Amino acid sequence: MLGYASTKVLWEIAPKGGRVMHVEQDRPVGLLTLTAVTPKEEVVLRDLGTASVFGQILRYQGRGSISPNAPLSERMWLRFSYGFGKKLTLLATTEEDEKAVRQIRDAIYFGGGGLIFTIYSVRDGKSSVDFAIAQCKVCDKPVISLVECEWLYCDACAAKCEHRYERGPIHGGGVDLGMGEFCGICGRGKPKPEGEPERPLYDHHIAAEEELGVQVIYENLPGITPRMLKGFVEGTAKKVLVVEDDQYWSGIIRRGLKGKVLVAQAFTTEEAEAVFQESPDLAVILMDACVPGDDPNTMWLVRKMRETFTGPIIAISSNSDYRKELIQAGCDHEAEKTEAAQKVLELVGVS
Ligand SMILES: [Zn+2]
Ligand SMILES: [Zn+2]
């Protein structure tokens, strides 16, 4: 489960308009502290101090990026309302800010829906305001981190908890969705055995798919499942060479393989030879007869491949006579082009 990287972080956040305000996060104390740096911020914080009373919630109004075109990952701001029509905006101006702003947003999502005003003070001549995000249900201490806010359980109380671990969906700590062991009382994750490496994200996703019956979809990788990703990253995905001069058919076959295998498309016999030479770990080869043209001209290539390749070679000419010739040359399977992809998936045992 997610916690802040360190217990105390100092960063700068500018209210919208580019002004810079110091925000300090002290997790053990459970407070976020905004300190004015510029005269304008002095005005904002003094006003906030006058308009707010202890325990008052500055309602979260939403977030956004600095301009409609800027990616959210670059700059994010959070807006809060207080008093009558008054708003406070925290704007991230650096990458560090961005992290902090996201942490505040996540904590607020699970907390009480805003920043809880606790105190206005003047420190070293500068206006300063302290906020909490939620409160520990055991000891009432204010809390500001995601895991504390989600479980309403402060770190100090969690340290004293007699954990009862259970298995269920987890998030946080860089994992958006996964399965793991966590305490059903305080929400803290079960410590990993010493030296056990972090599991890759796709393993978490595969576990979530299996145990929760959900389907994980990657926005930036359309059509790719966590299982495929694991195969690609860990090099266990099967490799398939499609020798087919017709772009249309080659494309149909590639799409038919649905990203479940790695596909190399060769549109000439030269390309096919080159790929074949560079890929000693091919699982299946699909072979058209006329590459290119209308006369069968790939039998020599099949014979040559057969000198070293022992895996399946599928004859995929649409002409059944040519398929026979290909089989005589060394192909051991045949399929219509429309059936070729399915045949490959059967042969490699991926469904
Ligand atoms: Zn507590
Ligand atoms: Zn616990």
Automatic annotation (TrEMBL):
Keyword Oxidoreductase applies: no
Superkingdom as given in the UniProt entry: Bacteria
Organism: Candidatus Wildermuthbacteria bacterium RIFCSPLOWO2_02_FULL_47_9c
BP-aspect Gene Ontology terms: phosphorelay signal transduction system
Protein name listed in UniProt: Response regulatory domain-containing protein
Keyword Phosphoprotein set for record: yes
PROSITE patterns: RESPONSE_REGULATORY (PS50110)
Response regulatory domain location: 239-351
Keywords, in A-Z order: Phosphoprotein
InterPro entries xrefs: CheY-like_superfamily, Sig_transdc_resp-reg_receiver
Residues where 4-aspartylphosphate is found: D288
